[in-house]
């Protein structure tokens, strides 16, 4: 399992830790309840941090699941694609619109009230 480096992981109730510094997760079995879901073991600390989130949700935020990797890759690809659209020359924009009916212009902002008319 590969962990995304330098990603801040929310542990609950204002606690964040870097994903690559987390070395272990252990669900709390005794006295488990609100604010007490998972023991998070991190580098440089003898005692675990008590997290209010489940180990699965922490793993997902760390990027350790296959679905998490796919979602992150898709986000990065969409960001790059949108940046590329903004760099198109006016000539290319007109050609795409006229030849392929593909408009790369940024949509005009819609007023909230217009959504319900």
What does the secondary structure layout of this molecule look like, with pairings?
Blueprint: E1 8-12, E2 15-18, E3 22-27, E4 38-42, E5 49-51, H1 55-62, H2 66-86, H3 90-100
Antiparallel strand pairs: 1-2, 3-4, 4-5
Please, could you describe this protein's structure?
This protein has 117 residues and is an alpha+beta fold. It has 2 domains: 8-64, no CATH class; 67-103. It has 3 helices and 5 strands; from the N terminus they run E-E-E-E-E-H-H-H. The protein has helices at 55-62, 66-86, 90-100; strands spanning 8-12, 15-18, 22-27, 38-42, 49-51. It has a 3-stranded antiparallel sheet, with no helix packed on it. A two-stranded antiparallel sheet has the order 1-2. The radius of gyration is 22 Å and the shape is elongated. The model has no long low-confidence stretch (mean pLDDT 83).
């Amino acid at each position: 399992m590969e962990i995304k480096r330098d990603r801040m992981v929310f542990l609950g109730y204002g606690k964040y830790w870097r994903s690559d510094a987390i070395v272990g997760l252990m669900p709390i079995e005794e006295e488990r309840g609100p604010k007490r879901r998972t023991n998070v073991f991190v580098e440089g600390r003898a005692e675990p941090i008590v997290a209010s989130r489940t180990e699965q949700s922490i793993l997902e935020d760390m990027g350790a699941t296959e679905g998490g990797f796919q979602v992150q890759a898709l986000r990065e690809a969409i960001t790059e694609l949108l940046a590329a659209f903004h760099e198109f020359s006016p000539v290319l924009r007109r050609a795409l619109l006229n030849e392929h009916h593909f408009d790369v212009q940024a949509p005009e902002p819609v007023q909230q009230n217009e959504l319900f008319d």
